[in-house]
Amino acid sequence: MSARISKILLLVLMLGASSMIWAGKWSPVTADELHDPAEPGIKLLQNPGEALSKLPSDSVGNQVDWVKALEGGYINPRTNVLPETKVRVLDTEVLMKRTGEMPMVKFPHKPHTLWLDCSNCHEHLFKSKAGTSNVNMMQILTGEKCGLCHGAVAFPLTECTRCHSVPREKIR
Fold first, then answer.
1. Handedness of CA 145, 148, 151, 155 (dihedral sign)
2. CA 33, CA 27: separation in Å to the nearest integer?
3. How many domains is the chain partitioned into structurally?
4. What is the domain-level CATH number for residue 88?
5. Is the entire prediction scored with pTM above 0.85?
6. Distance from C-alpha of 73 to C-alpha of 136, rounded to nearest angstrom
7. Which of 6, 27, 57, 86 is most exposed, with the fewest beta carbons within 10 Å of its own?
């Protein structure tokens, strides 16, 4: 096995272990090892179980299907800082074919642009012109490109088939 593949597998295993922290536990903020239980302001914070259990469920990550939560009106996130900013929701998909032997990646713009303005990702993370953005799994697994959100606030990187969803034989 090449050193590069070994590094990727190690990162996937590490990410899988870290996502288990969320796996349905929803620890109270006083016991989540992120917040200082001695801080007096901690009693002002809402516990994740109280808030997240009311949202559409998912089987991974923090157990919330955030796209369904958005589409169902459970949440209404602010898409920009300046209220006059016009957010453009795109209902287009990009097929990323350079995925080695893995199934190809179908990138849906709609669930992303419901949350974010195009300028959040284009031109600094991804070029607008198809095929000109150099994206690879090592970048993603180390928190770059897609990995800025996936593995942090969006579904975890251990869910390979959510992105790698188009079998190669579909385009042959």
1. negative
2. 9
3. 1
4. 3.90.10.10
5. no
6. 34
7. 86
